[in-house]
């Protein structure tokens, strides 16, 4: 916008201030400065650019200096212009800072409502369009968790957001933070966006873990996918999963296993309960089974993971067989034992007895 397009209302009283201040050599009064600040705020709220507004002030200054009043002392005039324009810019910037804070508050409230489903879905969908999301479509959510807690504006989320924008441009993607984690909401049919987010977030969080929820339809789909991603992170922690990127779709068996807690507890106690009779308790033997199953029942790899000799590992497996009556090396027994071990990890047994 050119300076001549600025309405004269935002220069109201300016020529009079220049005339009086330059004639007497005085500085602007408190009332005059405040009037400039107020006009600056009004101009910012109206959406005018500061560059064009300053240009309008300079044009008005030239018009005043070449007016019929004769020559104006340059030093006094420039001092008055400097004070007036500085106060105007101060008011303009003050209004912009307030607008930014209000925008940040509105964005934060929207994100909280979006990820927790606390708002009317119809109203939420309307608000989402302001932030580039169309909630009538399916969406998927990825969540990254590192050692540190992250907030909006921190280096890590900014780096990830800039990388996504540079790679994909405007793809209706929202990158934010929630409860110290990095969050990405993307259209459900754009797996490449979430894969790229996962790689960038893993690097930005210095090796943090990323979980990706399944694509879910409709305004409530974001909440469902977000909760799936959080659930995957929780499972990874409880089950000591080492993969840097987890997909909720690949972990569906675990919620199924844990859905009936009482049945799972019965299986754990009936299958692994006898291990509590050993001198070291059940935990070392449960860890042995866990390592054995996680390495595909390869004794040498499991022994290395546990810092044991293969002979010591074999002794432990034989002891488990004698105590429980089930043989980890027998395919007929293996499924029951492995399911019981998964249940023990999900229920924090034997650390939390039941």
From TrEMBL:
InterPro entries to which the protein is assigned, alphabetical: CdaR-like_regulators (IPR051448), CdaR_GGDEF (IPR041522), PucR_C-HTH_dom (IPR025736), PucR_C-HTH_sf (IPR042070)
All residue ranges annotated as the PucR C-terminal helix-turn-helix domain in the record: 285-341
Protein name: Helix-turn-helix domain-containing protein
Residue intervals of the CdaR GGDEF-like domain: 117-235
Domain of life of the organism encoding this protein: Bacteria
Family: Belongs to the CdaR family.
Pfam families in the cross-refs: GGDEF_2 (PF17853), HTH_30 (PF13556)
């Amino acid at each position: 916008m050119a300076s001549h397009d600025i309405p004269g209302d935002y220069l109201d009283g300016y020529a009079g201030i220049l005339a009086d201040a330059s004639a007497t050599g005085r500085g602007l009064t408190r009332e005059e400065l405040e009037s400039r600040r107020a006009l600056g705020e009004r101009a910012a709220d109206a959406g005018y650019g500061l560059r064009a507004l300053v240009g309008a002030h300079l044009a008005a200054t030239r018009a005043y200096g070449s007016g019929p009043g004769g020559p104006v002392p340059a030093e006094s005039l420039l001092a008055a212009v400097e004070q007036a324009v500085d106060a105007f810019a101060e008011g303009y910037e003050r209004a912009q800072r307030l607008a930014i804070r209000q925008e940040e508050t509105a964005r934060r409230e929207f994100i909280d409502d979006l990820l927790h489903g606390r708002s009317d879905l119809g109203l939420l969908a309307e608000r989402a369009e302001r932030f580039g999301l169309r909630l009538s479509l399916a969406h998927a959510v990825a969540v990254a968790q590192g050692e540190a807690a992250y907030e909006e504006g921190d280096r890590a989320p900014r780096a990830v957001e800039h990388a996504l924008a540079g790679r994909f441009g405007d793809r209706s993607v929202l990158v934010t933070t929630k409860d110290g984690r990095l969050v990405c909401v993307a259209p459900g049919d754009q797996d490449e966006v979430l894969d790229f987010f996962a790689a960038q977030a893993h690097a930005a969080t210095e090796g943090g873990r990323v979980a990706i929820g399944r694509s879910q339809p409709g305004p409530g789909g974001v909440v469902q996918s977000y909760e799936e991603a959080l659930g995957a992170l929780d499972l990874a922690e409880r089950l000591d999963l080492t993969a840097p990127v987890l997909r909720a779709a690949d972990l569906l068996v675990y919620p199924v296993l844990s859905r009936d807690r009482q049945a799972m507890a019965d299986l754990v106690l009936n299958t692994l309960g006898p291990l509590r009779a050993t001198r070291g308790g059940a935990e070392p033997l449960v860890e042995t089974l866990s390592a054995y199953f996680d390495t595909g029942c390869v004794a040498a790899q499991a022994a290395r993971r546990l810092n044991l000799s293969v002979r010591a590992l074999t002794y432990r497996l034989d002891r488990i067989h004698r105590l429980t009556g089930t043989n980890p090396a027998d395919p007929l027994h293996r499924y029951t034992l492995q399911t019981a071990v998964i249940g023990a990890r999900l229920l924090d047994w034997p650390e939390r007895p039941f």
